[in-house]
Amino acid sequence: MDFKNKKWDELERLRDEVNELSKSKNVDHKMIRMKTRLERIVELDPTDKIALFWLGDFWFQWELYEKALGHFEKTIKLDENHTYAWFYKSMILNETEKYKDAIKIFDKIMLMDEPPDETWFNKGVALHNLEKYKQALKCYEQYLKYDEKNQNDPKALIYKSEVLLELGKNDDAIICYDRAVKLDSSMKKYMERPKPKIKLGKRVLRHAGIGFGIWGMFHVILAITRSVV
After folding, report:
1. Which residue from 14, 27, 60, 105 has the fewest beta carbons nearer than 10 Å?
2. C-alpha–C-alpha distance, residues 186 and 193, integer Å
3. Are 55 and 42 spatial neighbours (Cβ–Cβ below 8 Å)?
4. pLDDT digit string (tens) for 45-78?
């Protein structure tokens, strides 16, 4: 058997092993063993975009964003329409606070075939961090209405609640917050429960009530002073 055939036989075996490992439920075991095989695949075939993408995903999970980005960019160079390589690149830009650059890529992804619905949520996060609250709200709402699973995403609901609060929509923010916390009580760590917004009329009445109370007390004190004199 010549070297070329041995190389392709090894590639086929490694790809089969990666495929089997991807089905494993033991995440740590799966990822570490997949990594060694993926690296060997790329060594034998530097144009294997599937292996490059999964290596990028591996480093992304470990929050080693620079390494991950290198693999995603190599994947994009081989396939400029690789939606998920673009998606993860934009996620890294979000994580490294390059929000404007991330938004450009999110917009690009939205024009591709079958963009991940998470694109809307993550674009919302970028806009949220840029304090563009109205635009962020539209993105969160687009994500939340996508399907039943998204409608019950507590993290998206808590982010939406915060944006509503920033926009002065306190009552809507409370509804959103309560729903998020009901779905997942750990959401309380992200923000405190919003307080109802006191309407102008009620604020006036409250201050008026305090004012009348003081005025009444003044008259009582005056009457007592006169009686003593």
Report:
1. 27
2. 13
3. yes
4. 999 999 999 999 999 989 999 999 999 999 999 9
